[in-house]
């Protein structure tokens, strides 16, 4: 039996150090139905909801891939969480996160890559907060 379709994964499992929004949330155009004069927004095949896109960055400094494009199926344009003072990107939690592996062609040889999609954006739960005591966070790690 082959496993089909996307895998559901918690945002904290995929991004243990967190992730942040680095672009605006934009509609994804349906290239088959759109024209130059009349862009048509793509819809999710399963739910029929409009599709949106946002770029996020992995906060892990050792991550091989740092930036990801995440597709969002939502009735209205998702709004990223409020900016955090002193942080150049907006920390985000990807609600209802799913990943789909695929073969990425190009380069010397093909490699496994992942497409990401979610159902919404929210502020991270229990996000570490920088403390004035030597840059330590609530988790005890250096900031």
Automatic annotation (TrEMBL):
Name the UniProt record assigns to this protein: Plasmid replication, integration and excision activator
Biased composition (Basic and acidic residues): 133-143
Domain of life from the UniProt record: Bacteria
Region annotation (Disordered) ranges: 122-143
């Amino acid at each position: 039996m082959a496993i089909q379709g996307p895998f559901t994964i918690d945002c904290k499992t995929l991004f243990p150090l967190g992730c942040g929004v680095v672009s605006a949330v934009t509609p994804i155009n349906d290239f088959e139905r759109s024209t130059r004069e009349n862009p048509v927004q793509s819809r999710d095949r399963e739910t029929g909801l409009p599709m949106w896109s946002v770029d996020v960055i992995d906060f892990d400094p050792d991550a091989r891939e740092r930036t990801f494009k995440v597709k969002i199926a939502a009735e209205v344009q998702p709004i990223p969480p409020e900016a955090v003072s002193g942080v150049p990107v907006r920390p985000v939690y990807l609600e209802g996160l799913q990943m789909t592996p695929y073969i990425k062609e190009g380069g010397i040889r093909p490699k496994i890559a992942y497409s990401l999609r979610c159902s919404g954006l929210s502020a991270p739960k229990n996000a570490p907060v920088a403390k004035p005591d030597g840059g330590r966070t609530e988790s005890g790690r250096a900031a």
